[in-house]
């Protein structure tokens, strides 16, 4: 029981730090967020942050993983009511790019994340997105709706296109102007995978 309680306390501490970090990084940005203020706000010490995450960048990685995971869930939810797998793929990509307008996502995942954690395509949180896209591509190809392209390559290119479009929107001084251009380009790109010469969308 003592070991279980200790584990629960460690999980509670991590959760408090992630919540505090998420708030601080969203409001102030990673560079400006103070570790002392962040930990004090959570009722914890710097030592707790170092013990659980190693350093401030480790906490950012945990916060990015949480927010990026929520992005994927929200994008996938947008595809649930789509009338077909193909249209669901379009809806998911569109929703992912649209999330670049969310101030919290914009600051934490699309601006500070790449600046301090490196290439987003290498983040562990992107693996779930890639797996979901891979499944959709495999299903569409099995139904004869896509060209016989390599599934892994197609999934990585589609995810990369949506991710880079979101990064472009987030970094733009006029994101609302860039957004429809990015969505239109992604839709055209995806249409290139369709089987047949016409490129018409499947029913």
Automatic annotation (TrEMBL):
All copies of domain HTH tetR-type, residue ranges: 11-71
Keywords: DNA-binding
Gene Ontology MF annotations: DNA-binding transcription factor activity; transcription cis-regulatory region binding
Family annotation (InterPro entries): Homeodomain-like_sf, HTH-type_TetR-like_transc_reg, HTH_TetR, Rv0078-like_C
DNA-binding region residue numbers: 34-53
Matching PANTHER family: HTH-TYPE TRANSCRIPTIONAL REGULATOR RUTR, HTH-TYPE TRANSCRIPTIONAL REGULATOR UIDR
Name of the protein this chain belongs to: TetR family transcriptional regulator
Organism: Cypionkella aquatica
